Amino acid sequence: MTHPTPSCALAALRVLDLTRVRAGPTCVRQFADWGATVIKVEERVADEPGGNPADFSARHDPDFQNLHRNKRSITLDLKSPRGIEILKKLVANADVLVENYRPDVKHRLGIDYESLSAVNPRLIYASIAGFGQDGPYSKRPGVDQIAQGMSGLMSVTGEPGRGPMRVGISLADLSSGLFAALGVMTALIERQTSGKGQWVQTSLLQAQTFLLDYQAARYLMQGEIPGQAGNDHPTGVPTGTFKARDGWVNIAPTPPMWKRFCKAVGHEEWIDHPHFASPKLRREHRGELNGLIADLVATEDRDTWVERLNAAGVPCGPILSIDQTFADPQVKHLGIAQTVHSPVLGDITLVGQPVTLSRTPSALVTSAPEAGEHTAAILGELGYDAAQIAALREGGVV
């Protein structure tokens, strides 16, 4: 394959990635895919649990490759004074640093915002935690599923009476990473005026609670505690999943579409039915209406309903497995599956960005780096010569 050209959108930006797992790497990926110079600062293999190079086999798994493309890697012992010295040299020329240590860890290492902003006052320092940088839960370990539960998300997910249900993706991790990236971009724009950096903070719990959106607003404004509605929309009826002869469909007519929906399915008598004539009545008789629609949808093939309802201007779509999603002609047209070359794995296909810029689009240029793949080159850029780099390796600093 031909090597793609890096995006020039963020080519002037230098980002230090001190993150692990998912939330932090998701944040940094936003900058890497638009051409920022991203240096992934990693622990040496010997510093990892077990100290076995085999522990890094996960680098070649799809998840790692998807999160860490377009980055360079330096290994660094941040528990040693010389390792901190090297990090501070990197910070001096950086625009952004992203970390997701527990709040007490960075202070213990001396790489907290106050310490590093003293080195570079223009630094945008982004922190992603499980529960926040302070407060009663700040020192707790935080992972996606815990945040999904504590935010209330699991209480409104799943079918009534079946108990709480997690969402099928790491939504708290992904959203906190994206919100952190948005915060960093806001801080970078503000820096153009003030000339100063600042500390950007978010957490899995904050991000996931924000994503409750209208469900949270229903409680905050009206005191209404939403419950589980399964595949039905919490307030819009009829909106839900229905089984056709050969598969499942989602049907989602909004209230202004009610009449055209009834006409499209051949049941105009539903329009003024005493149980269905208003949104309020349809909510009160959800089970009855859904039952009628389910019986009707079962008589035809899935694609028949998709074509008929969309032709009438009523939202309807198939429910696809992931392989079917990436085979779908519209998904193919959007080009979200993108190929990049890995020296170890060959050509691999990853998930590209979901946003398109007309002049400076994102690009997948390099696969995830090997651990410390660019250590010597990065140290050379900082002014270390070959003998000094060899001494740092010998001393276990890099």
Order of H and E elements: EHEHEHEHHEHHEHHEEHHHHEHHEEHH
Largest beta-sheet characterization = 6 strands, parallel
Number of domains: 2
Low-confidence stretches: 47-56
Determine the mean pLDDT.
Answer: 94
CATH architecture of the largest domain: 3-Layer(aba) Sandwich
Within the CATH hierarchy, at the fold level, what is the topology of the largest domain?
Rossmann fold
User: What would you give as the CATH superfamily of the largest domain?
Assistant: Crotonobetainyl-coa:carnitine coa-transferase, domain 1
Which structural class is indicated by helix and strand composition? alpha/beta
Would you count the extended β strands for me?
Answer: 11
Gyration radius over CA: 26 Å
Give the strand content: 5-15%
Distance between the termini: 33 Å
Shape: elongated
Give the count of helical stretches. Answer: 17
Notes on the structure:
By secondary structure, this protein is an alpha/beta fold. It has 2 domains: 258 residues, 3-Layer(aba) Sandwich (Rossmann fold); 88 residues, formyl-coa transferase, domain 3 (2-Layer Sandwich). Helices cover 38% and strands 14% of the residues. The protein has 17 helices and 11 strands. The protein has a 6-stranded parallel sheet with strand order 3-2-1-4-5-6, with helices on both faces. A 3-stranded antiparallel sheet has the order 7-8-9. It has a two-stranded antiparallel ribbon with strand order 10-11. Helix 2 links the parallel strand 2 and strand 3. The protein is elongated and about 85 Å long. About 3% of the residues have low confidence.
